Amino acid sequence: MKKLVAILILVGQITYAQNTQKKDSASTTLEDVFITANRTKTSRRETPVAISKITAKTIDETKASSLYEIANKVPGVVMVNLGNEQHAMSIRQPISYSSYYLYLEDGLPIRPLGVFNHNALLEINQFNLQSIEVVKGPVSSLYGPEAIGGTINLISQKPSFYPEFKVGVQADNWGYKRVQVAAGATIGKVGFHIAGISSTQENSWMAHSDYNKDNINVRVDYAITDNTRLISNTMIGKYFSDMSGSVNESDFNNRNSTSTSDFTYRKSDALRTRLTLEHDWNSNSNSALTVYHRDNKLGQNPSYGIRWSPTINPTTATGEINTNNFKSYGALAQHTQKFDFWNTNMVSGASFDFSPVTYNAYLIQLEAELNPGESGKQTVNQYQIVAELPDVKLADYTADIYNTAIFNQISFSPIQELIVTLGGRYDAMKLNYENALDNSIGAKTYDKFTFKAGANYNPLKETGFYGNYSQGFAPPGITSIFRAKSGTGGATAVPAEFYYNLQPATFENFEVGGWLSLFENKFSFDYALYYMEGTNELLSIRLEDNSTDYRSAGKTSHRGIEFGFNYKPTTQWNLRVGGTVAEHRYIDFAVSDKTTDTLQNLGGYEMPQAPRWAGNSEVSYYPNWLPNFRAAVEWQYISSYYQNQVNTVKYAGYNLFNARFGYQYKNVEIYGNILNVTDMLYAYNASRGNLESSQSTFTAAAPRTFLVGLQYNFSLKK
């Protein structure tokens, strides 16, 4: 440690001597400037979308052990904790695992199109984040498929001008521990930033919930000339977690934290690297070329893959073990051009991504030990593996995915108060596959042109309004295409059949919104009203023989209001209030072709896991009488929602309170978080089947949690 500090001091002395006249560009953050909405730095006044930014200050003060603690501060966002950084998402959609969200790292998708994973953000290094931008609603016209409910762009730390070094530890009362280190500096024309974390969880309140995660991020910037820069980013991550799964209603209410399976797991080995060449032709023209590579190895014995029927043979069940590996080789070219005429700004680009994928899933046989209960009301106490059957394949394919896209967006101001934005993008996803289960070789293409039109009207410096129309689409995930149809393949004598006919889901979104800033920015308010309709969403259809079939024919509607305001009456106090009120319904959603089923179409029903109200608010205190001390109390509210599609059973929702404290003395910072202050019993998620005999299952949330941390911050910044 002493050697490292000495080196950093020396680096700072050299850098300071060489650059005494330079300005520290990292010293300020313009909170009203965004990158994600237009792929270039744009002020809030010129952005006709609902967008929010989580700043470096908020990230630093939250001291989150998991990303959901940060993301949920954004109005309209409900990131659901599934334990050990696993997660689901709700942005203008119900809480779901669907591929309607796009996760970006510095503007590049974390996953290739067609290989969506709702847990992709577990690979993120929270200690490497500079800010987070969230765009709500479709932005497929700029970023392509899956950018529908929301797009989350995680923006990494940049090299600091002066040498900086941070090292810290944090731990909680349930066996969680994390060590984190970061360092950065600029020496002449070269700047670097390195951040690493190592997290472990052992012997938690929930049985079978250990995990470990190691991440390192390295960024190097080289200023070739004053106008040309070369930037490299590399991320390496390893993750392994037990998967405890959900619990039944009795165990949930009694706070019985036993897991029904002690063999389920999820693991991930990830590598992402990129190299970007940027050039400023002049003050109005900029070009960038990025080449990148991904290498992910994913494996799991998923708790959600366990299939058990209390009415057929309640003492047996099945599960699966699967692996999903992919590599990506891609390039993104972008050019930004400004014109004097009508203050026009144009962003154009093209991208290409080649991602070979392999996927294998096979059957495991399980024994189910039942809890005492009435006939038809049984629940499982414990599953045990009876046999692994690698030769009984549920899926076995290789695929080469080619994603090609071109996009263009232009904004102009015909009058001073009005800014008009038009954008379009054409995406073509080609899939060449070999399916070992039916010995087929083939190709499929999913292509779509998406369009956006919006306008900002800013009659005063303190207020502005916007409106937009945007389109989005999402091709079916390739795992759903190549999963054998129910009653075929696997252990059956029927040859496997597949879902080669699935079509992309498409969305249309209409919204209006605005913002207001008063009293020299002490008070700010923003809002958005939206209506979005989805077509060709994936359906699970019950057939006459009780098997299920997937079809692309569902229609849904999503409408709501998102709002947020901040009030800072003095330098000591800050109040933040944010939330959403929304309604998500089925329009035409057939679930059964079986003539004896009473309910065959869910049209008119509310979608499950769709709370009408959700919000996150916080009061922060920075006392003048104790400089460098901070305290905050946060309130998270989730209203009741239906657990099942047929709207017969509701979960009550919850009011959750968290508290955070911190104090910095010279270079040493000590902090503490209290999560679930009132130790309330609640579930991150609750679901239930549609049958009368179905039982509710709950993803149990943690009891009151105390987290403490210690961090050393060193900087030569004057």
TrEMBL record:
Q: Which InterPro entries match?
A: Beta-barrel_TonB, Beta-barrel_TonB_sf, Plug_dom, Plug_dom_sf, TonB-dep_rcpt-like
Keywords per UniProt: Cell outer membrane, Ion transport, Iron, Iron transport, Membrane, Receptor, TonB box, Transmembrane, Transmembrane beta strand, Transport
**Is the keyword Membrane in the record?**
yes
Q: Report the domain of life of the source organism.
A: Bacteria
Alphabetical list of Gene3D superfamilies matching this protein: TonB-dependent receptor, beta-barrel domain, TonB-dependent receptor, plug domain
* Domain TonB-dependent receptor plug as annotated: residue spans: 44-151
Is Membrane set as a keyword in this record? yes
Main subcellular location of this protein, as a coarse class: membrane
Q: Where in the cell is it found?
A: Cell outer membrane
Membrane topology is:
Multi-pass membrane protein
Residue stretches in coiled coil:
none
- Pfam families found in the cross-reference section: Plug, TonB_dep_Rec_b-barrel
Query: What CDD domains does the entry give?
Result: ligand_gated_channel
Ranges for the TonB-dependent receptor-like beta-barrel domain? 213-677
Q: Which family does it belong to?
A: Belongs to the TonB-dependent receptor family.
What the entry lists under PANTHER family is as follows:
FERRICHROME IRON RECEPTOR-RELATED, TONB-DEPENDENT OUTER MEMBRANE RECEPTOR
Designated name of the protein: TonB-dependent receptor
